[in-house]
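Read as amino acids, tokens; as here:

___
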Amino acid sequence: MNARVSLESLKGALDVLGSHKALRREFGMRLPTLMYHNIGSVAPGSNKALTISPARFRRQLRWLARRGYTGITASQWLAWCREARPLPDKAVLLTFDDAYADTATQGFRILREEGFTGTVFVVSSEIGGTNTWDQADGIARQELITAEEIRYWATHGIEFGAHGRTHADLTRLGPADAKAEMLDSRDRLAHLIGEPIASFAYPYGYYNDSVLESVKEIFPVVFTCDAGLNDLRTDLNRLKRAEMVSQYSFLDPFFQVRIGYNPIIVFRRTVGRLRRQAVTRARELLRVRDRGLFRT
């Protein structure tokens, strides 16, 4: 019975829309969302894995363009999901976390030259400042986008979203503090641009049930760091993104737009994690043996 109902619904939709292509455009779009961080040169002591050179970034955009992909913003995806506003046949969403100054001065220019757009997530208390959250972990100081640059690029095709007030791990805060982080980042950025802020990206990609309850009240479209592709069934408060890193970046666009992640990187990380677990276990056994508690 369920199969017959589904089949009849599909036939009815085809009758109304006229073709499978139109049906897909209306209900079956799949959105690859690429997550970048810094577009620029690798600075001493910076996070090399999260820095993509401008030349490599341009090659990736040209690869996408040759295969018919068109860049959209987070707001355009939201409008398709909620209002059925049309999207390009092969849409791709490029996102940029933390709003590094290099990304603004080099990455945005390349985006425009190659005919793409994107959504940038800003840490509101550090506009014109530095990546203080990274420096606490020993990563080098890097400049972030200024207020003047945000205002300029907001009128030249770049969309801005919120990324928290201080880039705090929201899951480690109480509900009131986590909500304040999100509200401050939204309101400060909206005041700067003069437009409502629709999108948010969880700092570090971390969220829990409490954070989800708060974010639903503040932002209509929210991004995680969970890998995968998005479609009409994807929770708008847990949209997936494919992380773009410098290692194996020549394979990234191919895998990311098709399955939402690079399986080579996933495999290497899994092997690395298993190796660390094995080493830890071996050390524990050696400590037990040295105490005379383990007999061979």
Notes: The mean pLDDT is 87. Residues 263-290 form the longest helix (28 residues).
